[in-house]
Protein 1
Amino acid sequence: MNIGKQIMEFRKKSNLSQADLATKTGISQVMVGKYERGDAIPSIEVAKKIADTFEISLDALLGEGQNVNFDKKIMDRIIALQSLDENTQSILFNLIDTYIQNFKAKQAFGA
């Protein structure tokens, strides 16, 4: 999928008009339309503004890369976890693992 279609998809998911997206990013509505139609490709700076507006990574906006399925909030938390000391990380990972195991058990047993 090209970046224009991705922009349109995320814009619609966010219930934004082209004018709304233009206002939030500081680009013109005409350019938003050109990006979505594939008549123009946003610069990296503009693509970053668009991704930030949707709270997604540039990878997600491009529809590529290993981080495509993670929203920006999840990625920010993962990055923050990396800066914590090893003991704190271990505690948090154990807590996360427990919640994941409980969720999977509920799904498996239909609870």
Protein 2
Amino acid sequence: MPRPDYVAAIDQGTTSSRCIVFDQAGHIVSVAQREHRQIFPRPGWVEHDAAEIWQAVQGVLADALGGLDGQIAALGITNQRETTVLWDRATGQPVCPAIVWQDTRTAPLTHALAEHEQLFKEKAGLPLTTYFSGPKIRWLLDEHPGLRERAERGEVLFGTMDSWLLWNLTGRHITDVTNASRTMLMNIHTLAWDEELLAALDVPRAMLPEIRPSAEIYGRTRGGFPVASALGDQQAALFGQTCFAPGETKSTYGSGSFLLMNTGHEPVVSKHGLLTTVGYQIGDTPATYALEGAIAVTGSLVQWLRDNLGLISSAAEIETLAKTVDDNGGCYFVPAFSGLFAPHWRSDARGVIAGLTGFVTKGHIARAVLEATAWQTREVVDAMNADSGLDLTTLRADGGMTANNLLMQTLADVLAVPVIRPMVSETTALGAAYAAGLATGYWPDIDSLRANWHKAAEWRPAIDETAREQEYRNWKKAVARTLDWVEQ
């Protein structure tokens, strides 16, 4: 029987859905993409139409696979995490708009649950914030009359986007361990829904999907090929960057940035402001865990410089502007536009530009904007090293900002380790494809995936330790000036 030619991945993101097809070497064969609406019914509310997203996914599948001359071995799924969908078991239709991970309507509820904060930290590995799915489910059940009773009878089902797509593709109500680890309802030690967590959030067990590994054959599509992986987007990027050994770390640089460090088969509960999450689980092998540091504002700061201040007319111009000067001229930009994420978790913080003198030009500010991404990364890496007992030796970087060579060099200087950009930048979809290909035997083992990984570029540290640490002290002084700004 001839060997299938390709593996496909659905990358269901916050603003669009894509289907990317890869060959045996991990090269991209075809891509299709469709955007979906961002719905903002009130300040702080962000919603999606799950039915619209399913239509988009069907469209990109047809577009990406339609012109292929060859067979698909497997289909993998990676998805925006924490976004919460409720649907009718009988009709398969959403019963309300999906609440997106960015939505903050559950802030009063999370404050009311403060007595359970230590429980969530110890069992779920997560801080009590609006970010995660559990409070969103509770809000929907509380606010929609009759919904809780239907959920308790198992008539209304919950899922994150992976579950919604798996339901529509295979008819099964399942999720994987990485997505389940972002709900605040799964015990990260047992990899099972936890009665104590369910009780604290008052979520009925009958509405929850079955938790499965990240890579196994879940079912088949109507087209007949196996659906064989599901991974939250940042975990998929960790997998696509082949960070399979403890200590190996990737950072995805987009509007915000996410660093994940593989910590092996034991969850490390952070004492330094990071999230403990499941990295991946291949079949019935033990789960691999990760520490995660989320940075709210990185690429979006460059957009802010373009759109709000007009100092540049395109994001790419920031590198040219920053190169008009040799250093930051003594100024530091901390972009705490809506508080600070990891490792501080300070919602009272607001952005500052510190160290201004008459000498500072727009070139210095542009350089300080790029350095803000590097210093925020350094803070998260220091926390990871302290939590894990492992020292970062190399950073594998992906995402749109990695096209900025000055930023990549600055990261290497600030972290004092080499920074590497891979040949294939679509690491999220690649990770989902790799996991699906492993589950179906398209790739024999993780060593074959490592062999596919090739670096496109590498940057090495080029400043001395004294200069690095002096700059870091100045950065920390700037961060201190952002705190306690919002009094209520």
Protein 3
Amino acid sequence: MRIGLYPGTFDPITLGHLDIIRRAAMLVDRLVIGVAINRDKGPLFSLEERVEMIEEECAKLTEQTGTEIVAHPFENLLIDCANDVGAQLIVRGLRAVADFEYEFQMVGMNRALDNKVETVFLMADASHQAIASKLVKEIARLNGDVSKFVTPPVRERLRAKFA
């Protein structure tokens, strides 16, 4: 069974994330969405809320792709999380050159820690390249329209947070 791991904070999950998840699901038999517990980032949504949003959104993708997609919170090293879930590959989405520079360093470090786990980069679809969770939260906080960046259920959760 080919298992992939797509890690991130998903605070909140965006249409860009969902595009990468849908495309990554075509490459593996099981896709684990690693939900990072990153206390330094101070997420807007709790871990439970982020996992719930991922499970809700990915249920539709599981039906469409036939690939099992599950959420898995983690707080350890990414490479250790990959080994914990049995992933042979880590999926990373790239939006711009700046993303590549950071990700390139991460791949080198992860390969030094465990060279059996490969990293696969998926370029963001052109329509999603500008989407960043941080910017989506800022737009929502200022009562802007985020409907181009997130699904309706996520948009409603953002509205509730900033009400």
Protein 4
Amino acid sequence: MRKLRLSTFLTLDGVLQAPGGPTEDWTGGFPYGGWLAPHVDETVGEMMEGWIGHDYDLLLGRKTYEIFAAHWPDQDDEIGRTFNAIDKFVVAGAGTPLTWTNSHRLEGEPGEAVRRLKASGDRDLLIQGSGQLVQALLAADLVDEMTLMVFPVILGQGKRLFRDGVGATAWRMTETRHSPSGVVCSRYVRGGPVETAAIASQAQNDREAARQDRMRREG
């Protein structure tokens, strides 16, 4: 059984759109493409290399696939050679040409297609970017591990990783590291269902009863 690993760049307010440059993805009039670059230092470079790991295939949504397919075939660094050699599984319709070598189209509903793919082998699946696909896979309870590299930026707009409907799940941090430029890289694995509890005994008086009644009326 394959493990599905998510790795992505995020702002403090959860935006993952266009970290790499101004022309990467300006849909919706997004004006902040390239917000990652000013914070990259030697430590960030080491964290980027370390979060990918070894022995994996790529799983990508259509837009991220198009970005990667335009960039990585011409790269001859370690990551580029790896990306070019491994299998790329793409959730995209027939209208998207798969021009990048070793690319394979996943047909059908994304959750079921990825569920079948996870059961088809033992190499990890690494998903990067692909926010819309990630949300569908979180909602389908298919993501096993997340590595989030959070940059000290608040943008107030743009495509976000976590939206309503992704499903309530607890996660356990397994490691974390930070850079001098303020970037925090943390890895999480599945921790089971979300547990809730009161941090203190709740007041039982007229003021508390009135407060709860007001919440019910306000919806």
